[in-house]
Amino acid sequence: MSHEAWNTLDWRLLQGPPLGPSLQMALDEVLLDEVAAGRRAPTLRIWEWASSTVVIGRFQSLRNEVDAEGAVRHGIDVVRRISGGGAMFIEPGNTITYSLYAPLSLVAGLSFQDAYAHMDEWVLDALGRMGIKAWYQPLNDIASESGKIAGAAQARRGKAVLHHVTMAYDIDAAKMLEVLRIGREKLSDKGTASAAKRVDPLRSQTGLSRAQVVDSMVETFRQRHGLIDDAVSTHEWQAAENLALEKFATHDWTAVLP
């Protein structure tokens, strides 16, 4: 499918209330399945976080990625998502997360690398409009001259693809290093300033509020591809609440790879 194919799709926008981590994970899976089944139109969902969390990738070891004592000390939940990729440190006011749920045909015939680049194109445009020269950095980062801005992950189920991205609007690098083990070896000799440099927040690069950045992203998508405001259905909420309890809030799922 060519770039124009985005504009043949009936894109919907979901911007809802802040949700807890396990419900966020569950809603991602439910909405992906609904698009795969043809019951939901392709959708852009902007997440709002109710609490701080670490989200680890489907194939990551919990023990290797997260300092359990650090997470407890800072009151940070740990959840596991259905897509691959690395651990994400999330604080509600400091993070922008979004998901795209699209027909698999949108990335048909593309390598994984090209599929990531294709799904990130619109947000690179949005960042450019905010004055940030950003690019896709294989396999799953969005970077700028000042450092990494965002990390992406994908999952494919049936006839749909999920592409979700977590962007650093601002970051508490010291806290991040107390909770995530990742990169400590690389950073320990250089200290926390180096961690902050490696993930360079949108706040410092744009001078805009988090809400303004989100609005600018949504507006860019709307101009490029069309976007109709939508809401999560009663059926989708119910399915997500059940899935959160049965799967994503359970230790068995989170620690499936200890």
* Computed CA radius of gyration, to the nearest angstrom: 17 Å
Low-confidence stretches: 187-191
- The largest beta-sheet arranges its strands as 7-8-9-10-6-2-1-11
Chain-averaged pLDDT: 91
Tally of helical runs: 11
Q: Indicate how many domains the architecture comprises.
A: 1
Q: Tell me the span between the first and last alpha carbons.
A: 40 Å
Based on DSSP secondary structure assignment, what is the total number of beta strands? 11
Question: What would you give as the CATH superfamily?
Answer: Bira Bifunctional Protein, Domain 2
What would CATH call the class?
Answer: Alpha Beta
**Which structural class fits the helix and strand makeup?**
alpha/beta
Describe this structure in words.
The chain has eleven helices and eleven strands. It has helices spanning 21-36, 62-65, 68-73, 112-129, 173-179, 184-188, 192-198, 202-206, 210-225, 234-248, 251-254; strands spanning 12-15, 43-46, 53-56, 77-80, 88-90, 95-103, 134-137, 141-144, 147-157, 160-168, 228-229. It is globular, with a radius of gyration of 17 Å. The termini are far apart.
Short description:
This protein is α/β, with parallel strands linked by helices and about 260 residues long. It has helices at about 20-35, 60-65, 70-75, 110-130, 175-180, 185-190, 190-200, 200-205, 210-225, 235-250, 250-255, and strands at about 10-15, 45, 55, 75-80, 90, 95-105, 135, 140-145, 145-155, 160-170, 230.
Q: Which structural traits does this protein have?
A:
258 residues; alpha/beta; BirA Bifunctional Protein, domain 2; eight-stranded mixed beta sheet; three-stranded mixed beta sheet; 40% helix; globular
